[in-house]
């Protein structure tokens, strides 16, 4: 029946009208009224016949109360039941459009809910070192197990989403909704999608509750974890309630209200009891109990495995740093859960024993009464004969954890309560980690050891100086001797059947023993050899135990190894006396006393290409000795020939410090430095008249980049004139030309010396010859030459010096041997050379201002610092140094920073941000006169430059364009006023008075539009006043007196409206009268 309430009222009105026209009985009218009432209830969303989403065991209500005495037809006795939708956001997903706000908010909430559950599970899953991906505590109390079971049951039975999802699957899509058309659009895919994610969320909630409960170690933890999962599981219901209140917007609020009011009918749900499948009717019940049974089966399996320790960590690795406990390195390695029934558990926690040494090795156990203090902690002890709760070496902080890895993250303490920060327990990732050191160490290392620096008599026995490697069956080892037996044991060469000395590995370092007497209980004459005793007698193993545990017989102890290589061999170690042990510990493990080092070194006596090759690419011969083809020495060529004064090409690399400095002058030390260091000077080998010896003193193979490269060239040889040939020389052949004797010295050290050689062919004399040498940066050098003379004839040629490795490099200086037998130059520091070479190539020539300045800067530390820090600052300092070289200021303060006292009192400098902005040089501040250096242009930030007082000659060079005030008055400057002043466009004051300047006043001065003062008086200027000066309207002061200017005053001068003071000669013949100008003469 699809009539609406308004239609029903119209129908009733018509019936009343009919009743007034026809006769009907009272019974008939009562039957009509009952039918109308029943129809009204069917179409009303608030009718009394409403069936909510059924809970477990609920039955649908029957409308039979409304049927009286057969008044209704039979099909109306069992009308279709009305059902209510689940009131949560999963229903919103099943009914609302995908792009609606209600749908999107619902998906977001469900996404957060599923993400939280997934994170809870992932956080508990990982590599555990057990058969399970989750760590379950072992042997928790029975009360915890009971709470775990109860929490699991409540989680399953109280999981509404799981039950609703199961029934929704079997109930199918609702077929008919009364009234609201929103639900008439509901699709099958969307309905089953919401059911699926509802089921996933419910199932994950059950699994999370189970896993967290079973991992809990206390009842409180069980309840806390249960409540946490329950909160996450109920997020969808909470979100739905908030939607009803409008917290998620009007769209979500409308959706939630319609879901609350909606009623639907469904054929699958409305079959009469006889026709409806009992399985479909109770499917949700079967589903819930199936989940409950599966979870409880898992619970019982975990419970049994927990009590057996199967879900606990089975293997852990221990790392204790040196000094944590005595001989701690012996106990580093793998620990495994005890396999012994008697020792497997202590205080309901697993006992972990050192792999391979289960009885006498290290052991981790849990104690609930540590040393009688009622404290609960994990402890580390030794051997099965000791009580781990009393005779422990270290213990964790107080804890109740069942997981030893968690205890490993806590603080650990020694017996005396000292905090230890160097104990680490970690999970074993693969079984290959458990097994201690690889016994292959026995096959590593040298076959023979030689001792240098420590040979003598000890205990009336002669100490061995050579030791031979041997090895013993590792299966004979216990925890104290295991490390010794898995490494080479070296037996001294003087060992006999009466005494022997050893070198062996204890676990963290190597020891050298005194000569040890053979056990007297065994008659020495029965021993075939000391080797037989070591390999086959248990007495030897007992001796090793005494050495490791008590330090008996130990003479020297090596430094403690810090890497895997340190365990392989005793070579390359520092050695010390043994430290005295602490009496209350009961043992004296061999520990080096760092305050008592011993000068002793071990070297390998034999070589092996695979395991012990010769050093520095030496060749290992068949008899296991090294052929040191590259100059090393020692049995393994292990000693590099560094610093012996002979340049070795193999070691001439940065790695070996350029052969310890042997290949370069200045760094080489020793009597043989430089001898025959140049194989063929200037490349004249084979061209000289004396062919058998053309070697010279020097450092031809210097490659150190910190040295300055120089190229010396011989060229323009004077050829012998045959007409003056003296017959006395014809017996051995007169040379056609000759090189000079040359000697190069820098800072008093000779870097090259080559004698004179005659060249025997005319064609060779037409060539040029060069030689590259290297000298230290920051040097003052001299090149001294002497012509080669043969009888009365001496042959001249030119000598040139270049900075670089070719004649195309920067020229330093040159001259002929005859006219300039000595060339002096300097090489600035490396940084200064790099920076200043871009300014001038004269920085090497000490006779130039630039060379003197560069040499000065090379000898003060602050210049090198500024050069490295900022190139602009060193250029400023270089400009000042050139200025000082020019006029020799009366000051000695040249080592100071240019902004902090440089040149005081002769020079006054002002600065901003450590750069010069003002420079003033006054009278009586100089010792000599000179030209203004062009390098002053490098003062790019100067605004006030005053060079006065008569110190300067010559012309005016280009100056910084930053200048505002330029004062050059009172000097002897000549030439014309430079036109390049026009480029200093911001200049405000120009004072050139009292000089010897000549020529005309340049018209370019008119471009100085900001000029306020112009002083040109007392010079030798000629010509007229340029009319262009009238355009400098800001000019306030003008002095032109005492010159040779003529003509009329330009009328444009009347434009100088700002002029306040003017002085001119009386020789001007006309022009405007300027009231502010004074005339002289």
Describe this structure in words.
- It contains 23 helices and 57 strands.
- By secondary structure, it is α+β, with helices and mostly antiparallel strands.
- Strand 28 and strand 29 (626-627) form a beta hairpin.
- It is flat, with a radius of gyration of 53 Å.
Which features does this protein show?
flat, 57 strands, 1081 residues, nine-stranded antiparallel sheet, 25% helix
Annotate the secondary structure layout.
Elements: H1 5-21, H2 26-43, E1 83-84, H3 89-95, H4 101-124, H5 142-157, H6 160-171, E2 176-177, H7 188-215, H8 219-233, H9 235-244, H10 250-261, E3 263-265, H11 278-281, H12 283-308, E4 315-320, E5 333-337, E6 345-346, E7 349-350, E8 352-354, E9 362-367, E10 377-382, E11 392-396, H13 404-408, E12 412-414, E13 419-420, E14 423-427, E15 448-452, E16 457-458, E17 461-462, E18 466-470, H14 482-485, E19 489-492, E20 499-500, E21 502-505, E22 510-513, E23 516-517, H15 530-536, H16 538-550, E24 554-558, H17 564-568, E25 575-578, E26 592-598, E27 601-604, E28 619-620, E29 626-627, H18 657-660, E30 697-698, E31 707-715, E32 737-738, E33 741-746, E34 749-754, E35 758-759, H19 762-765, E36 769-776, E37 779-786, E38 788-790, E39 793-795, E40 798-803, E41 810-816, E42 822-827, H20 830-836, H21 849-858, H22 861-869, H23 871-887, E43 907-912, E44 915-921, E45 930-931, E46 944-947, E47 952-954, E48 965-967, E49 972-973, E50 989-991, E51 998-999, E52 1013-1015, E53 1020-1023, E54 1037-1039, E55 1044-1045, E56 1061-1065, E57 1077-1080
Parallel strand pairs: 44-46, 45-47, 46-48, 47-49, 48-50, 50-52, 51-53, 52-54, 53-55, 54-56, 56-57
Antiparallel strand pairs: 1-3, 2-3, 4-5, 4-14, 5-8, 6-7, 8-9, 9-10, 10-11, 11-12, 12-13, 15-18, 15-27, 16-17, 18-19, 19-21, 20-23, 21-22, 22-24, 24-25, 25-26, 28-29, 30-34, 31-36, 31-40, 32-35, 33-34, 33-37, 37-42, 38-39, 40-41, 43-44
Helix pairs in contact: 3-4, 3-7, 4-7, 4-10, 5-7, 5-8, 5-12, 6-7, 6-12, 7-8, 9-10, 15-16, 21-23, 22-23
């Amino acid at each position: 029946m699809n009539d609406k309430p308004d239609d029903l009222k119209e129908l009733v009105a018509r019936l009343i009208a009919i009743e007034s026209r026809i006769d009907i009985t009272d019974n008939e009218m009562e039957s009509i009224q009952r039918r109308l009432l029943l129809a009204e209830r069917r179409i009303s969303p608030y009718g009394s016949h409403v069936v909510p989403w059924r809970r477990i065991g609920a039955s649908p209500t029957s409308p039979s109360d409304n049927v009286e005495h057969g008044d209704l037809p039979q099909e109306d006795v069992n009308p279709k039941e009305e059902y209510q939708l689940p009131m949560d956001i999963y229903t919103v997903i099943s009914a609302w459009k995908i792009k609606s706000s209600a749908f999107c908010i619902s998906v977001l909430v469900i996404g957060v809910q599923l993400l939280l559950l997934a994170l809870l599970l992932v956080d508990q899953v990982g590599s555990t070192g057990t058969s399970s991906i989750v760590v379950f505590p072992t042997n928790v109390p029975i009360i915890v197990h009971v709470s775990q079971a109860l929490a699991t049951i409540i989680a399953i039975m109280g999981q509404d989403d799981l039950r609703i999802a199961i029934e929704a699957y079997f109930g199918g899509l609702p077929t008919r909704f009364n009234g609201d058309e929103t639900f008439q659009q509901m699709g099958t895919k969307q309905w089953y999608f919401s059911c699926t994610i509802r089921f996933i969320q419910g199932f994950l909630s059950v699994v999370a509750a189970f896993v967290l409960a079973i991992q809990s170690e206390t009842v409180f933890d069980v309840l806390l974890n249960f409540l946490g999962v329950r909160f996450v599981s109920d997020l969808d219901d909470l979100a739905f309630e908030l939607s009803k209140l409008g917290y998620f917007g009007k769209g979500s609020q409308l959706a939630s209200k319609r879901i609350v009011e909606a009623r639907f009918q469904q054929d699958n749900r409305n079959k009469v009891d006889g026709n409806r499948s009992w399985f479909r009717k109770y499917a949700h019940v079967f589903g819930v109990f199936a989940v409950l049974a599966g979870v409880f089966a898992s619970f019982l399996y975990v419970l049994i495995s927990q009590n057996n320790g199967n879900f606990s960590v089975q293997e852990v690795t221990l790392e204790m740093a040196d000094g944590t406990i005595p001989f701690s390195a012996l106990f580093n390695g793998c620990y495994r859960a005890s396999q012994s029934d008697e020792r497997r558990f202590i205080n309901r926690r697993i006992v972990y024993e050192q792999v391979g040494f289960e009885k006498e090795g290290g052991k981790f156990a849990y104690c609930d009464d540590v040393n009688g203090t009622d404290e609960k902690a994990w402890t580390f002890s030794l051997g099965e004969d000791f009580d781990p709760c009393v005779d422990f070496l270290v213990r964790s902080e107080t804890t109740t954890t069942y997981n030893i890895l968690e205890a490993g993250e806590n603080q650990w303490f020694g017996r005396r309560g000292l905090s230890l920060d160097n104990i680490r327990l970690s999970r074993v990732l693969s079984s290959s980690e458990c097994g201690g050191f690889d016994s292959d160490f026995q096959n590593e290392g040298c076959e023979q050891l030689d001792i240098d620096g420590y040979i003598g008599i000890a205990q009336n026995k002669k100490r061995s100086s050579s030791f031979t490697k041997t090895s013993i069956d590792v299966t004979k080892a216990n925890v104290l001797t295991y490390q010794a037996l898995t490494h080479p044991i070296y037996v001294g060469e003087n060992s006999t059947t009466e005494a022997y000395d050893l070198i062996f590995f204890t676990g963290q370092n190597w020891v050298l023993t005194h000569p040890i007497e053979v056990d007297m209980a065994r008659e020495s004459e029965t021993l075939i050899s000391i080797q037989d005793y070591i390999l086959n007698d248990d007495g030897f193993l007992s001796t090793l135990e005494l050495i490791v545990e008590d330090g008996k017989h130990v003479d020297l102890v090596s430094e403690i190894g810090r890497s895997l290589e340190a365990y392989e061999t005793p070579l390359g170690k520092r050695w010390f006396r043994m430290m005295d042990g602490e009496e209350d510990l009961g043992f004296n493990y061999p520990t080096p006393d760092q305050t008592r080092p011993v000068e002793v070194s071990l070297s390998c006596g034999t070589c092996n290409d695979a395991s012990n090759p010769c050093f520095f690419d030496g060749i290992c011969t068949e008899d296991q000795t090294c052929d040191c083809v590259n100059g090393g020495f020692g049995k393994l060529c292990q000693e590099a020939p560094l610093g012996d004064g002979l340049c070795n090409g193999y070691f001439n690399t940065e790695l070996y410090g350029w052969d310890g400095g042997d290949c370069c002058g200045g760094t080489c030390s020793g009597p043989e430095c430089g001898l025959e260091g140049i194989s063929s000077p200037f490349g004249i080998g084979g061209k000289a008249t004396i062919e058998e010896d053309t070697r010279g003193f020097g450092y031809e193979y210097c490659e150190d980049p910190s040295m300055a490269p120089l190229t010396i060239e011989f060229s323009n040889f004077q050829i012998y004139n045959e007409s003056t040939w003296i017959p006395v020389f014809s017996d051995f052949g007169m040379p056609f030309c000759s090189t000079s004797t040359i000697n190069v010295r820098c800072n008093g050290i000779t870097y090259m010396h080559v004698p004179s050689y005659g060249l025997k062919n005319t064609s060779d004399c037409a060539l040029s010859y060069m030689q590259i040498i290297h000298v230290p940066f920051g040097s003052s050098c001299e090149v001294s030459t002497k012509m080669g003379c043969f009888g009365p004839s001496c042959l001249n040629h030119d000598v040139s010096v270049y900075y670089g490795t070719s004649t195309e490099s920067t020229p330093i200086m040159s001259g002929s041997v005859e006219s300039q037998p000595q060339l002096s130059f300097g090489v600035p520091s490396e940084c200064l050379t790099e920076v200043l070479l871009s300014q001038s190539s004269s920085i090497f020539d000490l006779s130039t201002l630039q060379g003197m300045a560069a040499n000065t800067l090379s000898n003060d530390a602050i210049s090198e610092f500024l050069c490295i820090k900022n190139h602009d600052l060193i250029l400023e300092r270089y400009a000042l140094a050139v200025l000082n070289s020019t006029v020799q200021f009366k000051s000695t303060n040249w080592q100071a920073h240019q902004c902090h006292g440089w040149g005081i009192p002769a020079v006054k400098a002002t600065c901003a941000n450590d750069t010069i902005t003002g420079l003033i040089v006054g009278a009586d501040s100089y010792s000599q006169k000179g030209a203004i250096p062009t390098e002053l242009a490098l003062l790019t930030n100067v605004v006030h430059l005053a060079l006065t007082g008569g110190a300067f000659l010559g012309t005016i060079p280009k100056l910084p364009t930053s200048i505002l005030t330029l004062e050059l008055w009172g000097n002897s400057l000549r030439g014309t006023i430079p036109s390049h002043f026009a480029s200093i466009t911001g200049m405000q004051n120009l004072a050139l008075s009292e000089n010897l300047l000549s020529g005309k006043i340049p018209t370019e001065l008119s471009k100085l539009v900001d000029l306020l003062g112009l002083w040109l008086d007392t010079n030798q200027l000629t010509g007229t006043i340029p009319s262009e000066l009238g355009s400098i309207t800001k000019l306030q002061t003008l002095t032109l007196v005492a010159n040779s200017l003529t003509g009329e005053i330009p009328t444009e001068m009347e434009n100088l409206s700002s002029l306040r003071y003017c002085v001119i000669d009386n020789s001007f013949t006309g022009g405007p009268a300027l009231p502010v100008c004074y005339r002289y003469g």
